[in-house]
TrEMBL record:
This is GST N-terminal domain-containing protein. It holds the Pfam family GST_N_3. Residues 29-67 are annotated as: Disordered. Residues 29-49 have a biased composition (Low complexity). It comes from the Eukaryota. It comes from Zea mays. Residues 138-220 form the GST N-terminal domain.
Length: 266
């Protein structure tokens, strides 16, 4: 059964780069729907030719937007600057996927249908280990909230492993998903993870990170997520620039479908 609709993460993070939100929320939904569509129709298969693969189409009335220069919306500069504080504190842990390695190559080394950054006469070839890692069939479910440093650690690991995740925002006093965590795990503590692919559910950020690394990575955990108290302190300081945003519940409507956000935790 499809998981309940999740409200947009606060941001997700609303801010474009907020990973959490990494959200995954949407990606999870997308993965789930793709997984369902991928099921062969055995009855039809025996009597008729296979159906052509479904094509992705823009919604009716969609107009391709004009490319615009990057800019920060007026009035949002301080908000973005506050969020950027996390980058030096966390050394950009969630920015790079597992085994990321860029190299400058001759343009002829990049297939013509593949995008690559250009750098003078060179192109940037980007490689990672993710292609060799197992992918979850159904999105992993994570109950958490933005201002929680332990949740941030898990969101960084989600980014490192490039996972589809259904995030359930659980801000303080949040009436929607908090009670569910108490029901499922026995206590209101965040983050809480449920992996519907394996039936595993757990609290404790370090345990979740290790579980994700072992199950969907190569078993390694980035150094900035392995430093114990120092990891917790820097993750906590990284949330300071957001001055408490994403901690408390604001009355809201739950969207009928999970919101899709493509992002990563900086
Ligand atoms: N050792 C736990 C600590 C988790 C924790 O203390 N989370 C806080 C939020 S930052 C919490 O659940 N507080 C109770 C609440 O928000 O109701 C971990 O690493 O996951």
């Amino acid at each position: 059964m499809a998981p309940p609709a999740a409200p947009t993460a606060p941001h997700h993070r609303t801010p474009l780069f907020l990973p959490r939100r990494a959200a995954a929320t949407a990606r999870a939904a997308r993965a789930a729907s793709l997984a369902v569509r991928a099921q062969p129709n055995t009855a039809a298969a025996s009597t008729s030719a296979p159906e052509p693969p479904e094509k992705f189409k823009p919604p009716p009335g969609f107009k391709v937007p004009e490319p615009k220069r990057f800019e920060i919306k007026s009035g949002q500069q301080s908000s973005v600057l506050g969020a950027l504080l996390a980058i030096p504190l966390r050394l950009g842990t969630g920015v790079f996927v597992l085994g990321y390695s860029p190299s400058l190559v001759s343009p002829s080394e990049i297939p013509s249908d593949q995008y690559a950054l250009e750098f003078g006469a060179w192109k940037v070839k980007e490689e990672s280990k993710i292609g060799q890692c197992k992918r979850p069939e159904k999105p992993i479910e994570i109950y958490e909230f933005e201002g929680c440093p332990f949740c941030r650690k898990v969101r960084e690991m989600v980014s490192v492993l490039d996972l589809d995740v259904l995030f359930y925002p659980c801000p303080r006093k949040g009436p929607t998903f908090r009670p569910k965590v108490l029901e499922m795990g026995g206590k209101k503590q965040f983050p809480y993870m449920v992996d519907p692919n394996t039936g595993v559910a757990m609290y404790e950020s370090d345990d979740i990170i290790k579980y994700l690394a072992d199950t969907y990575g190569d078993g390694s955990v980035p150094i900035m997520l392995s430093l114990g108290l120092l990891t917790a302190i820097t993750a906590g300081l990284a949330t300071l620039g957001r001055i408490g945003k994403g901690n408390s519940y604001t009355a809201s409507r739950i969207p009928p479908q999970p919101i899709e956000i493509w992002a990563f935790e900086v």
